[in-house]
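QA checklist item 7 of 12: single-chain prediction sanity check.
[x] sequence parsed
[x] length recorded as 161
[x] structure emitted
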Amino acid sequence: MIRNAAVVGGAVATIGVAAALARRRARQRRHVEHVATVVSSPGEVAAAWQQPDRLPGLFGRLTPQSTEGGEPERVPGERGLRLLVTLTPAPGDRGTEVRVLATGPAAADHDDRLRADLRALKSVLECGEAVTVEGQPSGRGRAQRAVQKRVHSALTKGGRG
């Protein structure tokens, strides 16, 4: 019985090691892909790249391609990151699909930044500027802060005001 428990325990340990290796490999992805649909024609979206300093983040340093299967280009100033931006018509005449493929050893490290830059790019192309909440007031007035302070005080005392 003890021998069988050791075999089962060894199998569980092996599965645990394999799962840990799979998680590590997932973190070390060598490519990341994001897609956004922009409500503009591919020609209008491509024309935006002709205007210097209009596009946010990493996209201002690249030139998009209109066909898939091209080679990712090295991003100036970003070591170990290569990006391929392709513009294709969205299905059902709904605008343009902007597809970003990041490759290289730094691709996984730039995942969040690429997602944020793509969101800002979509905003610039559709609204004319990157919409953010930076610099906006919180919306809480003096009276609301006073009430919030009293409620917080009551809750920290266990409800015994």
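[x] summary fact logged: Strands lie at 31-38, 73-74, 82-89, 96-103.
[ ] second reviewer sign-off
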